[in-house]
TrEMBL record:
<protein>
    <recommendedName>
        <fullName>Vps52/Sac2 family protein</fullName>
    </recommendedName>
</protein>
<dbReference type="GO" id="GO:0042147">
    <property type="term" value="P:retrograde transport, endosome to Golgi"/>
</dbReference>
<dbReference type="Pfam" id="PF20655">
    <property type="entry name" value="Vps52_C"/>
</dbReference>
<keyword id="KW-0813">Transport</keyword>
<dbReference type="GO" id="GO:0019905">
    <property type="term" value="F:syntaxin binding"/>
</dbReference>
<keyword id="KW-0333">Golgi apparatus</keyword>
<feature type="compositionally biased region" description="Pro residues">
    <location>
        <begin position="81"/>
        <end position="93"/>
    </location>
</feature>
<feature type="compositionally biased region" description="Polar residues">
    <location>
        <begin position="66"/>
        <end position="80"/>
    </location>
</feature>
<feature type="compositionally biased region" description="Pro residues">
    <location>
        <begin position="48"/>
        <end position="58"/>
    </location>
</feature>
<dbReference type="GO" id="GO:0006896">
    <property type="term" value="P:Golgi to vacuole transport"/>
</dbReference>
<dbReference type="InterPro" id="IPR007258">
    <property type="entry name" value="Vps52"/>
</dbReference>
<dbReference type="GO" id="GO:0015031">
    <property type="term" value="P:protein transport"/>
</dbReference>
<dbReference type="GO" id="GO:0005829">
    <property type="term" value="C:cytosol"/>
</dbReference>
<feature type="region of interest" description="Disordered">
    <location>
        <begin position="17"/>
        <end position="102"/>
    </location>
</feature>
<dbReference type="Pfam" id="PF04129">
    <property type="entry name" value="Vps52_CC"/>
</dbReference>
<feature type="domain" description="Vps52 C-terminal">
    <location>
        <begin position="448"/>
        <end position="685"/>
    </location>
</feature>
<dbReference type="GO" id="GO:0000938">
    <property type="term" value="C:GARP complex"/>
</dbReference>
Length: 829
């Protein structure tokens, strides 16, 4: 298609497009005009310049300009109100084909845009350009391409779908654009002063920013110079730091070498000439440091070590010689008899412990010599002290018993008249007796009781009391039993061993690992020091225990050993030899205790004593006091020998009971003796035989006076059924019991209380006897009910009721109630 065909349509399209877009160059030129050059605008006071002439329209260089013009014409809509033009006659609707608009619609668009008949244009084109393609095909294809590009525009679709006149639509759009343009111009003119002020401010800011840029540029140049200088300083600082570290390391090594090898004349003078005292300790510490340094660096190839070695060796020998003389001189004080060794150890030897450590490290031979000298002197010191103390304790030891003082020994003849009075004393007098003091004077007052613990229990309570002072005891004529002497000796041993072990562990510390633990030397020193003393103590205690027949004293000595072993453990003294010594001494006392308890058991087995009455025997009281004392001491191994004595005592009482004239007296005798043991022990172990013995006594006591009732009840209960028992067999029993039951209760209660008048158990026995009467009478009533029914019996006199008998028995009830024996009597029925 030639350019002449589209020229007219293109020109019209471009004109419409230029009218839609305002010329912005106009607004740019307006900024530079004054407000007076423009005429006033109504409502704003600004001048509205005349609209500029439209720019010239150049012919399109290609058919594509047609598309852009059409798009500019149809692509925007103005919302400003405008009077609508008169409606054109309705055009036929544009038919759409699949994928676009139909050929008729495209032709209509061209006709309306070009304003001429498409056929005329086609003919003109054919006349000028022969041989070109057909107008319909070419034009319609281009229109179709343009329509396909804008077919998504809703406004264009709406116009085309309605078949509206495009010229009218274009005219309406031009009017709207003109109105919008006028409004924009008025707004722009109103903002001209503000834009001028804004331009001035922008110019000022640009000037200030230019100055700041110049200033910052200068700063940047200065900072660059400073950064270079800092980098130089960092390099110099790193170099100086490396030099300082190297010099410090070298100085440390050189200082250590100099301190360890340089021997000042002052040090030599002090080691050789100075007196050994507290000021000598820093000198030895300095010498020790130099010797340690040379020894640790002996493999280093430093010539100074070879020069310092011989000089240090001479100083070592000289220091060892002076230290040896110092310690030997201090040990001389231990040879005096009344020297307080603990004061010398704490105030002298421990203060100079570094000297002994120096000897142990650098001169073991001299250290061994000093240590052995100490062991010999202190061992003799302790041995002398203990031997002197043991002799003094042997003088104040009071033998409480001898070979004849056994539990079954007969009482002295001069006391025979008071024996009966003693055992007939009130119960409170027998159960609350006091024993003599464990400590007796030289005046010959009564010594400790052989069987009752009494005041001897103070040894257990005051186990940690100070040891006995022998000179004070001898001066006042005081005497002590075995347990007090043994406790005092053990206290001396524990105190001496504790202080000596504490000193040895602190002073004689093993510095050589190849010898073992740090305390190996201390253990050896302690054993050598204490061995002679422990032998002397063990021999003395063994002699005292072997000659003792005091079972309580031996038992208390065993208790004392237990307590002092615990004391050693609490003080941290765990020496095998000392533990063995304590166990050996305790074993010796325990063996002797078993032997003495065997003597007591043998005496009971061979005793020829007789029981002249039913009251408790004096041997029973001895056993009860001995057993109670052993149980109070509370050492488990002591109980087994006591059990042997208990068995022999029980057999002894049974033999004495058999000597009574009848069974009733035998039971009374046994009950009284067991009751005494129970009251003293106040435990259930000895009270166990009381219940069966009480019931045996009840049966024996009721047999003479109530035998007819007992025999009838037991024989009749064996007969089943009771229809064969005649009423005449029941009636004599009823008649006799009704006539004498009150008298029977009174007589039995009085007789029982007479037999058991001295003991609390007598009231219990009375209740058991009277309760058993009720039991038999109730059993008799049960037989009556079975034989004659619940109604009255066919007797002239009806039997008294059991309730009446029980009410009468309550008159004889003990304040403490019926008790275990009475309850057993009730349950027996």
């Amino acid at each position: 298609m030639t350019d002449s065909v589209f020229k007219k349509a293109t020109m019209q399209t471009l004109n419409l497009t230029s009218m839609r877009t305002p010329d912005l160059n106009f607004f740019s030129s307006t900024r530079r005009t004054t407000a007076a050059a423009a005429g006033p605008v109504e409502g704003t006071g600004a001048a509205i310049p005349p609209p500029p002439p439209p720019p010239p329209v150049s012919a399109p260089s290609s058919p594509a300009s047609f598309t852009s013009g059409l798009t500019g014409l149809l692509g925007s809509r103005s919302t400003s109100p405008a009077p609508p033009p008169p409606p054109p006659p309705p055009a036929p609707p544009v038919a759409k084909e699949s994928g676009g608009y139909s050929a008729a619609a495209r032709t209509q668009v061209l006709v309306e845009l070009l304003g001429e008949d498409i056929d005329k244009l086609t003919d003109a084109g054919d006349a000028t350009d022969q041989g070109e393609p057909d107008l319909d095909a070419d034009v319609l294809s281009r229109v179709d391409e343009d329509l396909s590009q804008v077919q998504d525009n809703d406004d264009l679709k709406e116009v085309l779908d309605k078949g509206a006149d495009l010229k009218d639509y274009s005219t309406k759009l031009q009017l709207q654009l003109s109105q919008v343009e006028e409004e924009l111009v008025r707004d722009y003119v109103a903002k001209v002063p503000e834009l001028i002020d804004l331009e001035k401010k922008i110019d000022a800011c640009e000037s200030f920013l230019a100055k700041m840029a110049t200033l910052l540029g200068g700063f940047q140049r200065d900072l660059g110079h400073v950064s270079q200088e800092i980098a130089v300083l960092q390099q110099r600082s790193s170099a100086l730091g490396v030099q300082h570290a190297n010099r410090a390391a070298l100085q440390g090594k050189l200082s250590a070498v100099l301190d360890g090898t340089v021997i000042s004349p002052d040090l030599i003078h002090k080691v050789v000439e100075a007196e050994v005292n507290e000021l000598y300790l820093p000198v030895i510490a300095e010498l020790n440091a130099k010797m340690v340094f040379v020894k640790d660096n002996k493999d280093s190839h430093i010539r100074a070590f070879k020069d310092a070695g011989p000089e240090l060796e001479r100083l070592r020998n000289k220091a060892a010689e002076k230290i040896r003389e110092f310690f030997l001189d201090k040990f001389k004080a231990l040879r005096q008899a009344n020297t307080n060794i603990q004061m010398i150890q704490a105030n002298v030897l421990l203060r100079f412990k570094p000297l002994n450590v120096f000897l142990a490290n650098w001169h073991p031979e001299v250290a061994q010599e000093v240590r052995q000298h100490y062991v010999n002197l202190v061992a003799r010191y302790f041995q002398a002290q203990f031997e002197r103390y043991l002799k003094g304790m042997a003088k104040v030891l009071h033998p409480v018993a001898d070979r004849t003082d056994v539990i079954a020994a007969e009482e002295a003849r001069d006391l025979g008249s008071s024996v009966m009075a003693f055992f007939k004393a009130p119960v409170s007098a027998l159960t609350n007796t006091t024993t003599a003091s464990a400590v007796t004077g030289a005046t010959g007052t009564a010594g400790p009781n052989l069987y009752a613990l009494g005041d001897r229990a103070r040894v257990v309570q005051d186990m940690d009391a100070p040891a006995i002072m022998t000179h004070v005891a001898d001066e006042h004529g005081l005497r002590y039993p075995l347990e007090a002497v043994v406790r005092s000796v053990l206290r001396m041993v524990v105190d001496s061993a504790s202080t000596e072990y504490t000193f040895d562990a602190d002073f004689f510390v093993n510095q050589r690992k190849k010898l073992g633990s740090p305390t190996v030397i201390a253990h050896a020193v302690f054993q050598q020091v204490m061995e002679p003393s422990l032998k002397a103590v063990g021999s003395a205690v063994l002699g005292w225990a072997a000659g003792s027949y005091d079972a309580l004293g031996l038992a208390l000595a065993v208790k004392a050993h237990d307590r002092h072993v615990q004391l050693l453990e609490a003080r941290g003294v765990q020496i095998a030899s000392l533990v063995t010594f304590m166990a050996t001494m305790q074993g010796q006392c325990m063996d002797r205790y078993r032997i003495v308890m065997g003597y007591h058991a043998e005496s009971l087995r061979r005793s020829k004593a007789v029981a002249k009455e039913v009251h408790p025997h004096y041997i029973t009281r001895r056993y009860a006091e001995l057993a109670s004392s052993i149980l109070v001491i509370d050492v488990p191994p002591l109980v087994a020998p006591l059990q042997t004595v208990r068995d022999e005592c029980e057999a002894f009482l049974k033999r004495l009971g058999a000597q009574q004239g009848n069974k009733l007296d035998e039971f009374v005798f046994l009950i009284n003796n067991y009751d005494l043991v129970a009251n003293i022990l106040e435990v259930r172990t000895a009270a166990a035989p009381l219940s069966p013995l009480t019931m045996d006594y009840v049966d024996a006591a009721l047999a003479p006076a109530l035998g007819y009732l007992i025999t009838f009840v037991e024989e009749t209960e064996a007969q089943v059924p009771l229809d064969g028992v005649p009423a005449s067999a029941f009636e004599p029993v009823v008649h006799r019991f009704n006539s004498e039951w009150r008298t029977l209760l009174s007589d039995l209660a009085a007789e029982t209380l007479r037999r058991f008048s001295n003991f609390r158990h007598g009231a219990v026995v009375v209740q058991a006897v009277l309760s058993q009467i009720v039991v038999y009478w109730q059993r008799f009533h049960v037989l009556l009910d079975k034989r004659f029914g619940k109604g009255p019996a066919p007797f002239k006199t009806q039997p008294i009721g059991p309730q009446n008998v029980m009410v009468e028995i309550k008159k004889y009830k003990a304040p403490g109630g019926v008790g275990a024996a009475g309850a057993a009597a009730w349950s027996r029925g």
